[in-house]
Specification:
about 170 residues; mainly alpha; globular
Amino acid sequence: MFKKIAKTIKSFVPQEGYEFKIIDLEGLPVYNQDFDTDKNIPWAIERFRADMQSVNGVIFVTPEYNRSVPSVLKNAIDIGSTPFGKSIWNGKPAAIFSHSPGNISGFGANHHLRQSLVFLNMPTMQQPEVYITNSDALFSVNGVMIEGSTKDFVRSAVNSYIKWFEKSYSTI
């Protein structure tokens, strides 16, 4: 579901001045500090770090698993924050778009992720908070978000992020 939401977000990118990328976490090995210590870094980690280095800001799209973020996202955060002093996250303006098939809409994941982003020195958009409820019912069989209040809200939130990004990024 998060890929469908990410594609929807990407469809709202302004025509000029911005490029949104969907950076896939699939294939990332579980982080082990020995990768960096022994200088034996798997290709998937090098690729992910390079992909993330190439962006100026991040919109995290996350489902909620057990009132937190999925392990693959936490793993990616750890991969990007290491080795010490070379974090790919440092200073990048962020936003969090959380979702759930239920009514809680990813509240726990959203707030757990915010805690990590504070430590990673990622200024994070405060408003609007983006919690997408009943996410499994928002898409057509083609994977396109159905027109309605949620799609309007996501579009508005993307526009808010862009305005906030411009203010944040200019002060970094």
